[in-house]
Structure formats: structure tokens, C-alpha cells
Amino acid sequence: MEKGGGHVRSFAGKVRSELCRSPVQRLCCARAETYGVLLFANTFSAREVRIITENPEFAARLPRLFQKAFGLSFDQVPGEASPGGKLIFRITDAKKLDRIINQFGYDPRQAFAQHVNFGMLEDDCCRAAFLRGAFLSGGSVTDPAKRYHLELATSHLQASREVSALLTEMGFAPHTVMRGANSVIYFKQSEHIEDLLTSIGAPVAAMDIMTAKVDKEIRNGANRATNCDMANMEKTLDAAREQCAAIAALEKRGALENLPEKLRQTARLRMEYPELSLQELAGRCDPPVSKSCINHRIRKLMDLAKGAEEDDAG
């Protein structure tokens, strides 16, 4: 998270702020975005519209959006609020509500069941605007440094099913789950989250996710390399301890002094440098020898120690 406006802003807050910089130009897209806002808002019924947000950029965008889409203003707007406070917008005027409902193809005189009017979302720009509104109103996305998760939550179950179908048609692979009274559409694949954010107007946030993913891969690769190095080091030290124990046993028996000079030199080097790998130990020989040669000598010392131990046991 980053600090801004006197408070700490979440990654989801940064995404909302970026989305709110998308211009509201075409009437069809303004209506589509407002449609997404309402279907994923706190309340959207024939009696009331209520939208609650903590994001100041979204709060500043809402009045312009509704004026552009419907030529109307909110009946209640938030006053001065402290950073991070709830900002509440309401429409309760019956005529305003009728205008909104009629615009989306619903009949306010009949039972009001929210569903998606796909006739308003025929163009790609309108689909992107609709999903932008849905995210601004009912969306959330997790900081990619922690995990990959984006979701859209609404209490309108039929609308949620139809939005999920829309996303599938657009080439995404959404999952759905019920959380209390809400239907939640969610994504956990970073590529789909990146593509969705890019399509709805947040390419900078999408790039942040890509960058976080690369950072994770680099860190994971470094950790794997470190773990591999540690395992190899432990293996080398274990082998060296076993070799030193065998050489010590030969020395205790007085058997080292009877060995050829090359074996005696190898035994001295191993006891003096127990932390070295066979390759490094080979370089210490005078003259230096190959790793294969030093390995052969070490095995010979180990076999001699084992034979001596068997003789003692017999």
C-alpha cells in the first residue's frame, strides 16, 4: 500500500483511482458504466438507489456520471468526511428512479428483478465501461505482492450469473461462489486479472501485477538456488566428517605411516581442510590432481579403514 491524501491507500484503492481517470465521453458508455455501478451497488431498487464508497475519486466521478447518463443529480450526497470515511450517495425521488429504471429496460410498475440488459452492452467500449462500473461499485483486488485475487460482489443473483456469462463470452474464466447473501465472481489467475484490469481502464495496475509476479519468480528462483546450495553444502560436510573419522581411525592404529605418500598427503589435507569439497581438495594437492583422482584416493582410505574395522571385529 502507499500513502496518499493523508491515509494509507490499498492496491484496490489505487485501481479505483486509476479507473476514475478514464474519461466519460460517449453517452452509451456513461449509461453502461452507471449500469455496472447500480447492479453492484449497496442498494438498487424501485424505491431507492444507495451507493457507498470510501474512494474520493469514485465519489467525485459519480455525480458527473449520473448527470451524463440520465441528466439527474443525487438526492443525497456526502458532506465533508474524514479520510477513509464512508461516502454515501442516495436517490429516493420516484421520478428519478423511474427514469433510471426505464432507461435500463425495466418496467417499474412490475416486479423489479435486476438482470443484465445485453442490448446496452453490444459494443466493446460499453462492455468495458459496464465492467469498470461494476468494479468501482462492488469490486476488490488483492495486493499482488501477497496473492492474486479479484472479485465482483452483488446481492443481485441473476445479474451476477449473467455478468459471469458475459465475462466468459469475452474470453475470461470467472469462478463464482456465494458469500452470505452475495454472489461473488472471482479470479485467481494473474493473467486474467491483468487482462481484465487492462480492458476496463487500469493498465498501470495490470503492469504492477506483472512486475510483482516477476519479482516473486526471481525471489523463488534465488530461494531454490540457496536451498540447493545449502543441501549440497550439508552433503559435502557430512561426507567430509565421515572421511575424517575413517582417517582418524587409521591414524589411531598407526596405519597411516605405512601408506604410500599420495594417500598420506590426501589424508593430511582432508584432516586439515574438512570443509572443502573434493574439487577444492584436489587443488590443494602438490602437484594438483583431478577430482576423480582425489575421489579415488579418498575411497581407498575409506576402504582401508573399513577393512581395519572388520579385522578388529573379527
Q: Hey, roughly how much beta strand do the residues contain?
A: 5-15%
Number of domains: 2
State the major sheet.
Answer: 4 strands, antiparallel
Helical content band: 55-70%
Radius of gyration over all CA atoms, rounded? 35 Å
**Integer average pLDDT:** 86
> Alpha-carbon distance between the termini?
72 Å
CATH topology of the largest domain: Endonuclease I-creI
The chain-level structural class is alpha+beta
Number of strands: 9
Q: State the fourth-level CATH superfamily of the largest domain.
A: Homing endonucleases
Low-confidence stretches: 1-8
Q: Which CATH class of the largest domain is shown?
A: Alpha Beta
Please tell me the CATH architecture of the largest domain by its name.
Roll
Order of helices and strands: EEHHEEHEHHEEHEEHHHHH
Count of helical regions: 11
Task: Write structural notes for this entry.
- This protein has 314 residues and is of the alpha+beta class.
- The protein has two domains: 2-201, Homing endonucleases (Endonuclease I-creI, Roll); 233-313, no CATH class.
- Helices cover 57% and strands 12% of the residues.
- It has helices at 11-19, 27-39, 56-70, 94-103, 124-138, 157-169, 190-200, 203-252, 261-272, 278-284, 291-313; strands spanning 2-4, 7-9, 43-44, 49-53, 87-91, 139-141, 150-154, 175-179, 182-187.
- It has a four-stranded antiparallel sheet.
- A hairpin with a 2-residue loop joins β8 (175-179) and β9.
- α2 crosses α3 (56-70), α2 (27-39) packs parallel to α5 (124-138) and α8 (203-252) packs across α11 (291-313).
- The radius of gyration is 35 Å and the shape is rod-shaped.
